Predict the structure.
Amino acid sequence: MEIEIKHCNNIDSAKVSLSEGKLNIKFAPNGTGKSTIAKAILFSASGDNESLAELIPFKLRGENSDDHSPEITCTDHIDKVMCFNEDYVSQFTFKPEELLSNSFDILIRSDSYKTTEQEIEDIVQTMKQLFTNNPKLEELISNLKELGGAFKLTKSGLSKSSTGMKGLSGGNKIEHIPLGLEPFQPFIQSPSGVSWIDWQTKGCKEYSEISDSCPFCSADSAEKKEQIKQVGKEYDKNVIKNLVGIINIIEKLGDYFSDDTREKLAAITLLKDGLDKEHEAFIVSVKAQIDNLIEKLEKLKSLSGFHFKDGDKVAEKLPFYKLDLQFFSELNSEATREAITSLNTSIDGIIDKAGALQGKINIQRKEINKLIEKHQTDINSFLAYAGYRYKVEITGEEGHSQLKLLHLDHNQHLSGGNQHLSFGERNAFAIVLFMYECLAKKPNLIILDDPISSFDKNKKFAILEMLFRRDASSCLKGKTVLMLTHDVEPIIDTLKSVKKQFNNQVKASFLRLSGGQISEQIIGENDIKTFAQICQHAMNSQCHDIVKLIYLRRHYEILDDKGDAYQVLSNLFHKRDKLIDTREPKDENEQSPEMEASKLIRGTTEIKNIVEAFDYNTALEKMQNQTDLKALYHELQNGYEKLQVFRLFGIDVKNSVVQKFINETYHIENEFICQLDPSQFDLIPEYIIDECNSFAEIPDL
């Protein structure tokens, strides 16, 4: 798979090659554009053109005569990408009640689980189809919910603040017009009576005090002003709106009520002075039966294996799902019987298949328990191996399982993770949880944007092992993964140190940014060497003698060999005409004594055995000649060797950061036993070489 990226942030052009089904590690220094590559691929795959457009380089945000814009092309179709980065850690994980949002879907709903789930669904689908293909039944449920929801219960009865009580408690003033407001009856009782009341009361309140003229028709209304104001006192738009709503929903449900109930509800809506206790008690009874029926209908609508608890016998439990109208006296009508008959018939059909359903539910429950035990063991083993004093527990009812966090010194679940876990601990949890989400969602490409660079060696390997060294169904082994990192250690581990454990799963390469172009260089096992091997290789190569001498001196330093040969080389690189011996005691002026002739000869002979043409005075003359040094600097193509020669100029670089980098070239990788050969992999950032070029007044190469 080849991915080409153009005109994104600092990248003018980049080609990235991925081997499908493998871990593709792309190693590059910070500032190369690793996160840009990750974002560009993610935005392109998701079709987020707006975010992709925001990656336009700053140099093109002004003048852009060629109308360049960010471009991503891929030889293979990628439409589903998941990326582990800082946004994932901060936005997705560590919810207040669980470590991972949708724990059940991600950790438990495996392919085998889904297969069993579908088999259960096939058995109960006739029941569910009665809902999905029955608009009349759906409308009944919706209307029942509306009426039941209009009344809220308290310990003492109906809540006065519920919409139903607000509409009924003051009586029906639409039917019973208050004394003195009879002239307004046609407006109040019209279909738009609520709107009229709102219109009338607003006009009266805002304009009646301005003049004795009517604010609506400008006629003299002085004698009727109090009558007009009385409308606002007697009628509240919201109360009338609630009343009309209750009346309408009762009318819609009319045929589903028993004759007696329908008559009583109609009478209640027509009461002049509001509700008495017997009316409220009746409404409570109707509401209880409505809520009970809704609950039963909703359970039938969502019937699944989760409705049966561990130990339940399906054949004994299913009959209780049937609806018996003798216990729903308020709703016992021909229309209701017609609506539920098909549901009861469908339950009878499921009862006939109770044995098969029982078997599938048992398989499903066994799969859940197996996955819970496995995931808890895997995650907790990782935490223990990595040295974290936390563990996880998957708890909750089946279908609502949640991943909870515990500390080894505390037996209660911790709320979320942000307030307890350190930055490194959050990252470690997040990357493992990310792995499980990838297993659940099955993306075409998985991107790990610098996932483990901040961890110590033990934790880095623990994470790599968790992600790539278990059964393929339980980790990212065999998936197409792009890991972008500035840390060379994962490459050393997977290609050399413990390569057998990764069994040819890894493809690694080095990304080099130069002039806006990213080039890719394959890294193989033989490219990872000790620095002693690197020095030996350079000394046996055809490189310039000065470069060979540089590597030879580093070779002696690594071996901690400060013998005669090292003393000669040290004097040479300090450009001394008179050689000194730093091994000998200093005099009273803190000066090292002159090197003995015999030691000079032995040291020179040892060097000549490696660099045949070596002559101290000739080499010294070349090092003291700035023109020759600049010519050599210009000739060299590798950044590491350029910096070594640059040091010979003796230039005082005022930028302390750049100076430190030059003085301690390759200082990061020096802590490793193995590293990439700097003569083969140009790891020096481009800005460092540019800085050296400017100090040495050397034109761009």
